[in-house]
Amino acid sequence: MFDLNKTPLGIYEKALPNAFSWREKMTAARMAGYDFMELSVDESDERLARLDWGTEEIRELRSLMDETGILFPSMCLSAHRRFPFGSKNPETRKRAFEVMEKGLLLAQRLGIGCIQLATYDVYYEKSDEETKAYFLDGMKRSVEMAAKAGVILAMEIMDTPFVGTILRATHYLREIPSPYFKIYPDLGNLSQFSSDPESELELGIAETVAIHVKETEPGVFKNVPFGSGTVQFEKLFKKLHGLGYAGRFMVEMWADNNYRQTVEEAAEQIGEARKFVISKMRQGGYLIAE
């Protein structure tokens, strides 16, 4: 059962090998001491297929949640990198809304309360004022759908300048004031695009629904081992603690899918990341048990 007296710490689904079954992924997460996982629906055909899951797939995952105690409170819906709302191609924009609608319905069926959005106007196209306008329109219509579904949409602070800081995200929060439209800061991304990430966290604290904990270094936003990058975790956790943030933290890392791991090996790897993060959280003032 989820413990409301502890700070929740979760792990990104992609930190576990793609070859693992759901049972193996959730077992490894539990063995490593995590409280939850974040479901991934990315731009790959394999994960896009999850948007069309039937009753059997939903039943299996919900049953494993009950069995393992690992919940899925959030979904990383990064499929919009392939099908962005800001695209100048009307068919791509149409697909973006289809992905959004199906993502919201999947969230409802799994009991997921928050969808983390990949906040790109476009990714594989050139950004300009037209793509930004299309993106804003897409967000407005998506938030309307999310409100009807009772699911929060949260803009991730991203790995590109478009919304690489909380300050840039506030433009969209002002344009779309809604309890169903919030932000999901990534400490690693924020640290590379802002010279003062602590002030950024203060600026957005009232709109923050969860925090990504990821290591980065200048120009490198993925697969940087914890402790080898430039993110000042202790300072950022101290700031969040001082601001009274008590919500979810989610460790973001990626498995090496070229290597066949056992469940025990995977649990050890993500467990080491958890130990690192917990040590930095404690230095920042959080009371975290092993």
Outline:
The chain is α/β, with parallel strands linked by helices and about 290 residues long. It is about 45% helix and about 15% strand.
* Spatial order of strands in the largest sheet: 6-5-4-3-2-1-8-7
Share in β-strands: 5-15%
Mean pLDDT: 96
Using only CA atoms, what is the Rg? 18 Å
State the helicity in percent bands.
40-55%
Keywords: Isomerase
GO biological process, one term: L-ascorbic acid metabolic process
Domain Xylose isomerase-like TIM barrel: 28-272
GO molecular function: intramolecular oxidoreductase activity, interconverting aldoses and ketoses; L-ribulose-5-phosphate 3-epimerase activity
How would you portray this structure in words?
- There is one protein chain.
- The chain is of the alpha/beta class.
- The protein has one domain: Divalent-metal-dependent TIM barrel enzymes (TIM Barrel).
- The protein is built from 10 helices and 8 strands.
- The chain has helices at 22-31, 45-48, 55-68, 90-110, 129-149, 166-175, 187-193, 197-204, 233-242, 263-283; strands at residues 9-12, 36-41, 71-77, 114-117, 152-156, 181-184, 210-213, 248-251.
- Strands 6-5-4-3-2-1-8-7 form an 8-stranded parallel sheet.
- Strand 7, helix 9 and strand 8 (248-251) form a beta-alpha-beta unit.
- The protein is globular.
Topology, element by element:
Blueprint lengths: L8 E4 L9 H10 L4 E6 L3 H4 L6 H14 L2 E7 L12 H21 L3 E4 L11 H21 L2 E5 L9 H10 L5 E4 L2 H7 L3 H8 L5 E4 L19 H10 L5 E4 L11 H21 L7
Parallel strand pairs: 1-2, 1-8, 2-3, 3-4, 4-5, 5-6, 7-8
Helix pairs in contact: 1-3, 1-10, 4-5, 8-9, 9-10
